[in-house]
Amino acid sequence: MRAIKHMRGRTVVLATRDIDTDQIIPARFLTSTSREGFGKNLFHDLRFHADGTKNRDFPLNHADARGCKILVAGNNFGCGSSREHAPWALLDYGICAVISTEIADIFRNNSLKNGLLPIVVDEKTHAWLSGNPGVELAIDVTASTLTMPDGRVVRFPIDPFARFCLVEGIDELGFLQQHLARIENFEETRSWTP
Fold first, then answer.
1. What is the SS3 assignment for 121?
2. Is residue 51 domain-resident?
3. For residues 165 and 80, what is the distance between their CA atoms, to the nearest angstrom?
4. Does residue 151 sit within a domain?
5. Cβ distance 88 to 108 under 8 Å?
6. Contact 147, 153 (CB under 8 A)
7. Rg of the chain on CA atoms, in Å
8. Domain containing residue 67: CATH number
9. Where are the alpha helices (H) located in 69-168, listed in sequence order?
10. Model pTM greater than 0.70?
11. Longest C-alpha distance within the chain, in Å?
């Protein structure tokens, strides 16, 4: 996982409410446990028609969405079944952060564990972002802040341990491995057996 302390990027808006993990990455594409390659099927059934042609009405298919790193999503984004493939697909496509008024708990946790930043903002901020696609935002993970184009700073909640892991570029296993010497010492010197 790469360390994420600060990021800048343009937004693309997908205002639809209740986008579930099967819409993010349909189950029929879950054929690998590698994190790579899922981006091409991100939002597949929304991005493409049944005949395989692009749905020109879908926001990610618009020319001005190319290179956007921040997805402004509708309420209750990432609901549905638990699948790490959903954040993998977003990351593989080039999305580094998702902003919404509500992000489903399991999706949020899977995102944080895999290096995708889920940001929950207030309704007023979300409404402005939804109405102004393509704006550039600055995100400071360390300070848990989002800087709007007019300079206004919006704070967002993030679990302190998850923030630490994102800033350090490690997952939970990496965190434990940082303490391997202490763990081994404990195992060798404890006076009781399990």
1. coil
2. yes
3. 25
4. yes
5. no
6. yes
7. 19
8. 3.20.19.10
9. 85-93, 105-114, 123-131, 160-168
10. yes
11. 67
